[in-house]
Amino acid sequence: MSDWDPGQYGKFQQERSQPAYDLMDLIGPRNSMRIVDLGCGSGEHTKTLHERFHSVETIGIDSSGQMLAKAPRAAGLKFFKSGIEDFGGDGEFDLIFSNAALHWVSNHDELFARFKKALRPGGQIAVQMPKNGDHPAAATVYALEKEPPYNQYPGCPIDSNTLAPEAYAALLHRLGFRSIKVRLNVYLHELASGAEAAEWLKGSMLNHYKATQPPEVNSLFEREFRNRIDRLLGSEKPYLYTFKRILMHAVR
């Protein structure tokens, strides 16, 4: 994955933040919590977690050096550059939090089993992931990646990595979690025009193609994607961007 652009990602900061706050509302406070935020990005939500739950230590982990360069500083708040794939632990955390990150990681059965191992008894998991691959903007990307010359390069894995909501409920139950809550939220974002959906995806999903395609191919890919979005959605002003996300919370 190419390094993320904090400025591009932050163009829709308010819209991207609401699911994180909704996820925090599912968490039960405990004394002296030790928290890890996986895929923490630039760390604003990590700091909010740290302050809201008065944790003794909160650790933010992200693979993007550019995002981490923007991370805030506070006592008990730490950030490390690492992939979620490398995360592990043995009864070390009271809360594993991840907002809009795990869809980039494969094999969620194994991943969530590692999460359980890393939690203390009574520890919590709180996860939010997009599940919006059938939206016209994302569907346009998936259709384009299958066409030559783009089909020579790896397709974006986020939709195939992410399970159905009911599959996560069954997975958490199978792993022995309790007080399981899994829900699918539809967020409504009013954008200035349909063309802004391309700007939204440039800050997230399109990073995959930037990382896996040669620059000259990626330039053509992004140009064609924008042309198609302009034809498909660009005439709608304002544009109601519907965005489905899975939110889940459970207790070990």
Key terms:
single chain, alpha/beta, 25% strand, 38% helix, 7-stranded mixed beta sheet, Rossmann fold, 11 helices, globular, 252 residues
Describe the structure.
By secondary structure, the chain is an alpha/beta fold. The mean pLDDT is 94. 37% of the residues are buried. The chain starts with 5 loop residues before the first helix and ends with a strand. Helix 6 packs antiparallel against helix 11. The chain is built from eleven helices and seven strands. The longest helix has 19 residues, at 215-233. Strands 3-2-1-4-5-7-6 form a seven-stranded mixed sheet. The chain has a single domain (6-251), classed as Vaccinia Virus protein VP39 (Rossmann fold). It is globular, with a radius of gyration of 18 Å.
Mean pLDDT, all residues: 94
Number of E-state strands: 7
Count of separate DSSP helical elements: 11
Which radius of gyration do the C-alpha atoms yield? Answer: 18 Å
Termini Cα gap: 32 Å
Give a quick summary of the entry.
By secondary structure, the protein is of the alpha/beta class. The protein has 11 helices and 7 strands. The protein has a single domain (6-251), classed as Vaccinia Virus protein VP39 (Rossmann fold, 3-Layer(aba) Sandwich).
Helix-strand layout with pairing:
Layout: H1 6-9, H2 13-24, E1 34-38, H3 44-52, E2 57-62, H4 65-68, E3 77-81, E4 93-99, H5 108-118, E5 119-130, H6 136-145, H7 158-161, H8 165-174, E6 178-191, H9 196-202, H10 207-212, H11 215-233, E7 239-251
Parallel strand pairs: 1-2, 1-4, 2-3, 4-5
Antiparallel strand pairs: 5-7, 6-7
Helix pairs in contact: 6-11
